Amino acid sequence: MQDLKHVYISEISKYAGRDVCLKGWLYNKRSSGKLHFLQVRDGTGIIQAVVFKGDVDPETFTMADKIPQESSVEVYGTVKEDKRSPAGFEIGVKHLKLVSEAMEYPISPKEHGVAFLLENRHLWLRSPRQHAILKIRNTIIKTIRDYFNNNNFLLIDAPIFTPAACEGTTTLFETEYFDEKAYLTQSGQLYMEGAVMAFGKVYCFGPTFRAEKSKTRRHLTEFWMVEPEMAYYDLNMDMDLAEDFVETIVQSVLNANRAELGLLERDISKLENIKKPFPRISYDEALEILKSKGKEVPWGEDFGGDEETAISENFDGPVMIHRYPAECKAFYMKQDPQNAKLALCVDMIAPEGYGEIIGGGQREDNLDLLLAKIKEHNLNREAFEWYLDLRRYGSVPHAGFGLGIERTVGWLCGLHHVRETIPFPRMMERIKP
Ligand code: 4AD
Ligand code: MG
Fold first, then answer.
1. pLDDT digit string (tens) for 79-133?
2. CB atoms within 10 A of CB 376
3. Which residues fall within 8 angstroms of residue 231, CB to CB, at 6 or more apart?
């Protein structure tokens, strides 16, 4: 028995009719007289293991009756086809080995409040729902890496400790760096601008940090962002890339994760619609849409979650809003040569109220205009001298964007809040577990 081949549930169909060993945990159990039905999970799936009194030794039968939820077990038995079960197979148990008996498990398959589940995030991860979400996250990340690898981008890892702000000083996390102050990175963009002048097309992909003091369903204090940067790209080329990229991600999840989307009860028809080209509207046109809905925003203000949701209602896919007022955007945005009050930037707003998933645009490549912006934003010029060099030595038009992974996962999975989109969420009120 003990030397039976260890197989994974995801591959169980290859072993029909054979005796195998599964190594996993007891997810759930029900019993009726001479039968115990154990739901066993091993990380790749869940399968029913049937323990029939007549097939096993008395110790195994008693163990199957008593074994608590989430105990770790090795299951030895025969793989049997079973059309009614979700896996298509079940295990006719011959022997069970208890690896470690679990104490009374705090999360039962019934409903729990979110606060309790977040406290127990390390255990909550074991649920099929979290499994589905994180599998979709995995597909998204794999697709992103493949996309850039297939399109001649070079991966450039950006630093986490930085000497200056990229996205405004109000959300900086400050830390000690020997005798100096440092900040956790808000974005790798400035470093990508340096690298792109060396390598033409680059991207970084890593954690970024923002001391977001608001508790919204879209904000984490630590989130993952992928940031491509391209030399000799203008705003239109940037938008072309962004829509192709997002379409690729959506189609890839639809291909790879039908089962997970089903488990999450995601309305797939809404995702099947996501095909480029995506509509492109100016900030001024977005203001008109808001006005028609009775939401007047004064010219010059950025949009918040409510405005983004209202705008998204007019479209059945992502919409790109370009040319915001420079005054509400970061210092590095290129001034629109047609109108100095506008920045050549773009935000992509996901449909169904999932908010901004991409922020980006063309970068200011003119040294004097950039110097003026650094001053206007009260930034410490010294910390940006290296960045200014990029305009001194062979400056070229260039553009890029950042896609937030968690918002993308939230949208594709149809989740109300980003807290479930990352294994261990960090929010204003949460740094545990
Ligand atoms: O719009 P943001 O701030 O853009 C940048 O950081 C640029 N430097 C990117 C670039 O051009 N290279 O952030 C980009 C995206 C947002 O659209 C959103 O998806 C996500 O990052 N994001 C957040 N996600 C979760 N929690 C937060 N607090 C987020 N802040 C931004
Ligand atoms: Mg933004």
1. 999 988 878 999 999 999 999 999 999 998 778 999 999 999 999 999 999 999 9
2. 11
3. 196, 197, 200, 201, 396, 397, 398
Mark whether 128 and 95 lie in a shared domain: no
Structural domain for 224, as ranges: 121-420
Q: Please tell me the total count of domains within the chain.
A: 2
Give how far Cα 412 sits from Cα of 8, 155, 272, 320, 351, Å: 27, 25, 11, 18, 10
How far is Cα 93 from Cα 26, in angstroms, rounded to an integer?
A: 14
Domain with 74 in it: what CATH number?
A: 2.40.50.140
Going from the Cα of 358 to the center of ligand 1, the distance in angstroms, rounded, reads: 7
Q: Which of 407, 411, 426, 429 to mutate to test the pocket of ligand 1 (most atoms within 8 A of CB)?
A: 407
Does residue 133 share a domain with residue 81? no
Pair (278, 215) in one structural domain:
yes
- 337-388 tens-digit pLDDT: 999 999 999 999 999 999 999 999 999 999 999 999 999 999 999 999 999 9
